[in-house]
C-alpha cells in the first residue's frame, strides 16, 4: 500500500537573519541565540516547520557540529542532525517539523552542540511556517 501524502497550506511564515559569527564549545545542547523567529503564534492546530540555514564549521578535524530544532521544549522531528564536520566554512541546512501543535503562542529555537573542539556559525537564517 503506498504511503499517504500529506499536503498542507502555509498560513503564516516568520523569517529572521543574523550575520554575526557565534561559537560554542558545549558538548550539551544549548540555545543558539539569537535565533530569529523564536516566538510564533498559531491560529489553530497545525504543523510547524522550521528551516535553519547557515555557514558553519568546526575547528577540530574529526569532530562534528550538531543542530536540533525545539518547539515548546520538545525536539522536533527528525531530531538532532550533524550540520557539519568541515573545518572550513560551508553552507548547510536543517529542516524540522512538529505535528499537532495546539493553537496559541509557541517558542521555536535552534539548539547546537559539538562533539569536541569549537563550532562556529555565521550568516544564518531561520524560517518558521505554520501549515494547515
Mean pLDDT: 90
The tally of helices reads 0
Count of β-strands: 11
CATH fold topology? Jelly Rolls
Tell me the fraction of residues in β-strands, as a range.
over 45%
Q: How would you sum up the major sheet?
A: 6 strands, antiparallel
Distance between the termini: 25 Å
- String of helices and strands: EEEEEEEEEEE
Helix content: under 10%
Number of domain units: 1
Structural class: mainly beta
Residue runs with pLDDT of under 50 for 5 or more positions: none
CATH architecture: Sandwich
Q: What keywords describe this structure?
A:
five-stranded antiparallel β-sheet; mainly beta; 132 residues; Jelly Rolls; 11 strands
Set down the secondary structure blueprint.
Blueprint: E1 10-18, E2 22-24, E3 30-31, E4 39-42, E5 46-58, E6 65-71, E7 74-75, E8 81-84, E9 90-101, E10 104-114, E11 119-131
Antiparallel strand pairs: 1-11, 2-11, 3-10, 4-10, 5-9, 5-11, 6-7, 6-8, 6-10
How would you sum up this structure, described in words?
- There is one protein chain.
- It is built from no helices and eleven strands.
- With 132 residues, it is mainly β.
- It has one domain: Jelly Rolls (Sandwich).
- Strands 3, 4, 6, 7, 8 and 10 form a six-stranded antiparallel beta sheet that branches. Strands 1, 2, 5, 9 and 11 form a five-stranded antiparallel beta sheet that branches.
- Strand 6 and strand 7 form a beta hairpin.
Amino acid at each position: 500500500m503506498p504511503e499517504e501524502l500529506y499536503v498542507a497550506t502555509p498560513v503564516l511564515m516568520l523569517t529572521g537573519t543574523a550575520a554575526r559569527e557565534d561559537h560554542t564549545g558545549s558538548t550539551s545542547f544549548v540555545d543558539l541565540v539569537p535565533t530569529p523567529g523564536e516566538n510564533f503564534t498559531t491560529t489553530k492546530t497545525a504543523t510547524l516547520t522550521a528551516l535553519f540555514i547557515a555557514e558553519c564549521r568546526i575547528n577540530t578535524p574529526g569532530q562534528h557540529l550538531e543542530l536540533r530544532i525545539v518547539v515548546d521544549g520538545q525536539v522536533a522531528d527528525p531530531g538532532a542532525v550533524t550540520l557539519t564536520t568541515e573545518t572550513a566554512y560551508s553552507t548547510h541546512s536543517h529542516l524540522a517539523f512538529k505535528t499537532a501543535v495546539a493553537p496559541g503562542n509557541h517558542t521555536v529555537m535552534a539548539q547546537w552542540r559539538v562533539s569536541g573542539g569549537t563550532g562556529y556559525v555565521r550568516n544564518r537564517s531561520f524560517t518558521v511556517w505554520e501549515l494547515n
